[in-house]
Amino acid sequence: MIAPELRRALTEALDGAVHFDTPLSRHTSLGVGGPADALATPVDRAGLARTLSVCRAHRLPHHVLGSGFNTLVRDGGVGGVVVRLSKLRRIEPRPAGGVRAEAGVSHSQVTRFCVQRGLAGLEFAAGIPGTVGGWLAMNAGIPRHEMEARVREIEVMSPTGRRTRHLRRERLHFVYRALRGLAPGSVILSVLFSVAISTPGEVKAEVDRLLARRADTQPLDIPSCGSVFKNPRGDHAGRLIESAGLKGHRIGGAEISTLHANFIVNTGGATAADVLALIEYARRTVLARCGIELEREVRVVGRQP
Ligand SMILES: Cc1cc2nc3c(=O)[nH]c(=O)nc-3n(C[C@H](O)[C@H](O)[C@H](O)COP(=O)(O)OP(=O)(O)OC[C@H]3O[C@@H](n4cnc5c(N)ncnc54)[C@H](O)[C@@H]3O)c2cc1C
């Protein structure tokens, strides 16, 4: 709960673009979890800076949420302010084979932009749902392709909202499914991608090929958060979970997908506790049967109920 005077300060900082006690199940792809004390959607960078400044002044934690395709919110919800950048949606071509996209630009917006202009290099990400900010924070990718290889520079706002910096690729520390080294609470504002000149037809053909492969192998019509675990070196988490006999295993409304064992799907009415219990069950079972400790890819946020 946020005190009334703080609610007023946030409402003022955000020109009203804030909602209180808002269910985050509506803002994450798994569709589970409790409410955000405050859900802020600043309309521009100045509004974001003011929001971060109010948070800092009142020692209120903030959490940045993209489209929530890789986020599992606990049933107790998230304390403090959840900030969404869905109003920062500008995307434009830049000289020398560049595309600058703001953090709230969606995967489909990037794909459309690149297909229309015949810009190659980001086709691999067409089926990775989310925002540009989430792509970068996760170093999202598919086998042999990751964001890291396509980033020339990012623009980041400090956790206090006071400073904005441009960081060139050489200063960024990407690892498998993470971007390290930014101060906790930093907000990625935009990314300069590197692309190559191609033709709309060629870019579209590659996008279509990758999307078709995905549709055959992933449960795309049921709520999920994508891969739950990272692939261990030289192996696949899905293969290990399947070989441990866990496909179709259920706890409450959460189920290990019968199509792709590294996906947990919400079959309807799952709670975050169901999903977390299933994640833990899969981790322990794979460890016991295969001797391999799986590491979670999905980011878990929030408090216990
Ligand atoms: C069906 C399905 C398929 C998927 N396939 C893939 C795949 O092939 N490869 C893959 O890598 N992932 C995959 N994912 C996972 C997901 O699509 C990616 O992780 C994506 O990058 C998440 O983006 P998002 O905006 O939804 O991030 P969110 O889930 O909202 O956030 C993820 C993390 O990024 C941080 N973050 C988000 N925006 C910002 C910002 N502006 N500044 C600072 N931090 C920020 C959040 O705090 C959080 O820690 C899949 C998910 C689904 C549901």
Separate helix tally: 7
Q: At CATH's second level, what is the architecture of the largest domain?
A: 2-Layer Sandwich
The residue fraction in helices comes out at 25-40%
Ligand species: flavin-adenine dinucleotide
Biggest sheet, strands in spatial order?
6-7-15-11-12
Enter the CATH topology name of the largest domain.
Answer: Uridine Diphospho-n-acetylenolpyruvylglucosamine Reductase, domain 3
Structure classification: alpha+beta
Order of helices and strands: HEEHEEEEEHEHEEEEEEEEHEHEEEHE
Span of the ends, CA to CA: 13 Å
Low-pLDDT stretches are none
**What is the arithmetic mean of pLDDT?**
97
Tell me about this structure.
The chain is α+β, with helices and mostly antiparallel strands and 305 residues long. It folds into three domains: 4-84, Uridine Diphospho-n-acetylenolpyruvylglucosamine Reductase, domain 2 (2-Layer Sandwich); 91-215, Uridine Diphospho-n-acetylenolpyruvylglucosamine Reductase, domain 3 (2-Layer Sandwich), CATH 3.30.465; 219-301, Uridine Diphospho-n-acetylenolpyruvylglucosamine Reductase, domain 1. Helices cover 28% and strands 28% of the residues. It is built from seven helices and 21 strands. The protein has a five-stranded antiparallel β-sheet with strand order 6-7-15-11-12, with helices on one face. A four-stranded mixed β-sheet has the order 1-2-5-3, with helices on one face. A hairpin with a 2-residue loop joins β9 (141-142) and β10 (145-146). The mean pLDDT is 97. The chain binds flavin-adenine dinucleotide. Flavin-adenine dinucleotide binds at residues 29, 64-71, 85, 103, 128-131, 133-135, 137-138, 140-142, 187-188, 218, 220, 224-226, 299.
